[in-house]
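During the no-cost extension, the postdoctoral fellow (Dr. R.K.) reprocessed legacy sequence entries with the updated structure-token encoder. One reprocessed record is reproduced below for audit purposes.
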Amino acid sequence: MMKILCFRKSFVMLFVLSFFLFPISCVTSKDIWIAEKQIPAAVEIKPISKQIITLPEKGPFNITVKDAILIALANNRSLSVERMNPSIQKTFEDQERAVFDPVVTAGVSVQQNDSRTLNSSGSYADGSVIDAFEGNASLKKFFPTGTFVKVAAVTEITDSDQYSGSYAATRLGLTVTQSLLQGYGTDVNLAQLRQSQLETDITQYELRGFSESLLAQVETTYWDYALSQRQIEIVEESLKLARQQIIETEEMIKVGTMAEAELAAVQAEVAAQQQGLIDAKSTLESNRLRLIRLLNPPGDNPWERDITLVHPPTLPKIEYDEVGAHVAVAMKMRPEMNQAKIDIQKNDIEIVRTKNGLLPKMDLFITLGKTGYADSFSGSVNDVDGDSYDMMVGLNFEYPVFNRNAGAQQRRALLSRDKAEVALDNLKQIIELDVRNAYIELNRTKEQISASSATRKFQEEKLRIETEKFRVGRSTNLFVAQVQRDLLISRINEVRAVVNYLKAIVHFYRLEGSLLERRGISAPGLNPVEYSTKKINLQSK
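Re-encoded structure tokens follow.
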């Protein structure tokens, strides 16, 4: 009797201890559970200010470069597609979390058995009919500590025509299994969840990179469109002067002060400039369609809408640091850099997971049960408090003889980590080269502005002198036409130099990774990623 009482006390203590594993295994410490990030259905890319640009649904519309950026952020369809990726990746996080969700199971079954048995004389005895009912319910849960807990209740009710009444048995049981080697600890059991969260972070940096690229496209196309408009204006002005020269030449031919052969040079220049005007209008239309695609304005047929740019290309006043400072910014802000660092973090987690796989599998299990017996279900439940019990404690051990699979996975993880480190070093070099080249191009385009302006002034003076010489008969239409063509080219080059500088600024800021911040745009992936630079020796493993 004393043994029974002692066991019942031990049973209660183990039962309570086993349930106590629930709070131990799911404490909210960051070492066990990773804080769940709430990501909306589509991640927002938006201006820091609350300014909203509303476009009419029909007809032409006027925009500044700032308006174009805001409209593209709100309407661009490619960006809308990219915004969905972090939310899609977030579903994989939820799948990994589901591994630790409680699972409820239940079942019922009814069985009837009509059978005969042999008696002592070897002949068949009377048959017997047994009706059996079984119902079960359980709650089981796996914890990040490598602990598996299952609580179950099972009821069996048997009714046989060989007995005067029915027979019922109800068992309440608890099973706890704890991994001691392979599968032990939160580091290995949360590895896939942490990797999935890092994948979500990668999609946010990818979204940031795409947003910067889109922003650069919008600004570049805006300035290309502005250049096309200004080029048409310049060509039309030059063409007007060339046609006026034809009129003057024809009058001079009529009065006999000029040979008729001089007319061909002017006519050829007019035809050449008409060709240039056709090309300029075609380029303008192509740039308009590109801008329409990026802005995606409302309306049934946006492709037919005209766009008027409010601000022409003008020279901004910007001071730059020395190139090394911009390189340092790029090392922190470039989305590719942060993605590469996250890849290293993922590899670090994979090394931990595969290292655990090298261990033997050894699990400690404890099974405790209390069973009640009676002639009814309610009676068997009340009898659970009786003396009947069952208990089992043991160990399960498993280890492949050569364990080649786990060894191969560990080596692959270590090599992948080393590869990610080398890839990051290579990326750093590429990024620094990008920034330094962009810095050179930035200064070149800036210096070209003053040079092209000086060239245009000299060409204007050259045309003035050549025109005066032509009027006094010391020059020909051919020379005047050539100088007019040179002036036309220099005027276009002057505007192109300003546009190229504006585009070089955008390109430089994009390669630096700061374009969104400099344009006042809030986007995910702003914070630089930190990672461990500790090298892991493959041979030591």
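The chain has a mean pLDDT of 85. Residues 114 and 129 are 4 Å apart (CA to CA). The remaining legacy entries will be reprocessed before the final report is submitted.
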